């Protein structure tokens, strides 16, 4: 009898946990197209060309990470990201996608590939990149949750 009661209790706990997980996974997916996700790089690149680091940082979620091309310091806070972009924007960068792969999921997307930055002095840097995005329902916009960029091997 005691074993039966314990088994019943464990079964009930298991059902409750399963129901809780099912509820935790329930979310409404914001529709996204490849064109919309492609446009997120264009939005970020336009912010770069504005010369205003605050406009660039506005594309990042508050809890995002930036692993930038020309710095070995991870940037976690808005202030750290802004500090990076103050210096990066002095070079007057313009980004161009060379190739990409986009993966779209429920309320998230990944845009990875190769891009080239051309700077105001005419120099260029080719780099690998990954942007991950999450749909921010409160702000009703896609935000960067992680951004990794690294110069291609063999670059001067």
**Which fold name is given in CATH as the topology?**
Nuclear Transport Factor 2, Chain: A
Separation, N- and C-terminal Cα atoms? 76 Å
Helix tally equals 4
Q: Strand percentage, roughly?
A: 35-45%
Q: Please outline the major beta sheet.
A: 5 strands, mixed
Explain this structure to me?
It is a single chain. With 156 residues, the chain is α+β, with helices and mostly antiparallel strands. The chain has a single domain (29-151), classed as Roll (Nuclear Transport Factor 2, Chain: A). It contains four helices and five strands; from the N terminus they run H-H-H-E-H-E-E-E-E. Strands 1-5-4-3-2 form a five-stranded mixed β-sheet, covered by helices on one side. A hairpin with a 4-residue loop joins strand 4 and strand 5.
Q: Could you write a compact summary of the structure shown?
A:
The protein is an alpha+beta fold and 156 residues long.
Key structural traits:
156 residues; alpha+beta; single chain; 35% strand; Nuclear Transport Factor 2, Chain: A; 5-stranded mixed beta sheet; 4 helices
């Amino acid at each position: 009898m005691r074993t039966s009661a314990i088994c019943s209790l464990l079964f009930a706990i298991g059902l409750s946990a399963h129901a809780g997980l099912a509820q935790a996974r329930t979310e409404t997916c914001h529709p996204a197209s490849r064109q919309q996700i492609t446009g997120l790089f264009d939005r970020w690149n336009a912010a770069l060309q504005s010369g205003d680091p605050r406009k660039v940082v506005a594309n990042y979620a508050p809890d995002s990470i930036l692993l930038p091309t020309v710095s070995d310091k991870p940037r976690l806070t808005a202030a750290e990201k802004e500090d990076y972009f103050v210096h990066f924007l002095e070079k007057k960068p313009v980004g161009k996608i060379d190739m990409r792969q986009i993966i779209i999921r429920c309320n998230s997307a990944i845009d990875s590939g190769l891009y080239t930055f051309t700077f105001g002095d005419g120099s260029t840097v080719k780099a690998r990149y990954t942007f991950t995005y999450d749909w921010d329902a409160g702000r009703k916009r896609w935000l960067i949750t992680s951004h990794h960029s690294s110069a291609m091997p063999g670059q001067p």
